[in-house]
Amino acid sequence: MKSLLFLVLISVCWAEPHPDNSSLEHERIIHIQENGPRLLVVAEQAKIFSHRGGNVTLPCKFYHEHTSTAGSGTHKIRVKWTKLTSDYLKEVDVFVAMGHHRKSYGNYQGRVFLRESSENDASLIITNIILEDYGRYKCEVIEGLEDDTAVVALNLEGVVFPYSPRLGRYNLNFHEAQRACLDQDSVIASFDQLYDAWRSGLDWCNAGWLSDGSVQYPITKPREPCGGKNTVPGVRNYGFWDKDKSRYDVFCFTSNFNGRFYYLIHPTKLTYDEAVQACLKDGAQIAKVGQIFAAWKLLGYDRCDAGWLADGSVRYPISRPRKRCSPNEAAVRFVGFPDKKHKLYGVYCFRAYN
């Protein structure tokens, strides 16, 4: 009897009179109204451009739907900025703010803070930008049980260049490739940076590591030794390889520098050790490969004299192609890795500004 009564009560609760059967299903839908307006986080620009040594603001603002106020006043707003890795599987902490508490992480310490131009402004200011700052950043705003995110990409003006050491082609595992780029005042390039360089005309047949662990190379002029002459131009992808055991070249990325790059006027040609000492005597250091590429690409540096660089290579930058000086294209010409003790060349120096 009790079971029967229970079933009758359920029927009364669920089956109220309806004018027709077509509206029955709609009447059975239960609508749940959340308390308070929905939190929205937006970035006014999806991509921001800057350069090494500069300052930049990554835009991020938060709103509540159906209201113009920034917060409800019942919960503290928590703002968290993270940097997304190339595979998106993990995030690197950059900055967290809640109330009067602020915390920055890693090499961002002392270089990042919130703009806070208004009560709903969560924009992040990054000062003294370094090459490693390039990438995608996530702005997350949390209020109580509500949260939302926006993603902003920070692009840096710079140049991508292929690099292989004195040992020759395909001699770097991934970790050695990273160090090789750092030694030449650069970082290992991302796919996006290599793709942009390819669109700007970079053509290189040797495969090189990229920051996501893939091995690729850019071809603008298809030819038989580089994938075949009947293939279309593009960035060729070898896929992902063992970072410890596999060996390739590397594509490095560098940006402008805070200093002066120059060819040292000297009465005689020099061995490598003499070139190092000549730059030191001039109040500078022997220049790195990344610095000659940055001077060539970003400053239009042009010099037909071959000169020593820090890695023991000899190169010269041509921005205005002409007879006997790279007649067919603007490029940083590579002479090779000559005998350091016996071969004589000029030298390129770099003096950092204080």
Automatic annotation (TrEMBL):
Residue ranges constituting the Ig-like domain according to the UniProt record: 37-155
GO molecular function: hyaluronic acid binding
UniProt GO cellular component terms: extracellular space; perineuronal net; synapse
Disulfide bridge positions per record: C205-C226, C304-C325
GO biological process, one term: skeletal system development
UniProt-annotated location(s): Secreted, Extracellular space, Extracellular matrix
Occurrences of domain Link (ranges): 159-254, 259-351
InterPro entries reported in the protein's UniProt record: C-type_lectin-like/link_sf, CTDL_fold, Hyaluronan_bind_Proteoglycan, Ig-like_dom, Ig-like_dom_sf, Ig-like_fold, Ig_sub, Ig_V-set
Segment forming the signal sequence: 1-15
Keywords associated with the record: Disulfide bond, Extracellular matrix, Glycoprotein, Hyaluronic acid, Immunoglobulin domain, Repeat, Secreted, Signal
Entry similarity comment: Belongs to the HAPLN family.
PANTHER family referenced in this protein's UniProt entry, alphabetically: AGGRECAN/VERSICAN PROTEOGLYCAN, HYALURONAN AND PROTEOGLYCAN LINK PROTEIN 1
Function summary: Stabilizes the aggregates of proteoglycan monomers with hyaluronic acid in the extracellular cartilage matrix.
Protein name in UniProt: Hyaluronan and proteoglycan link protein 1
Source species of the chain: Alca torda (Razorbill)
Lineage of the organism: Eukaryota, Metazoa, Chordata, Craniata, Vertebrata
This protein's encoding gene: Hapln1
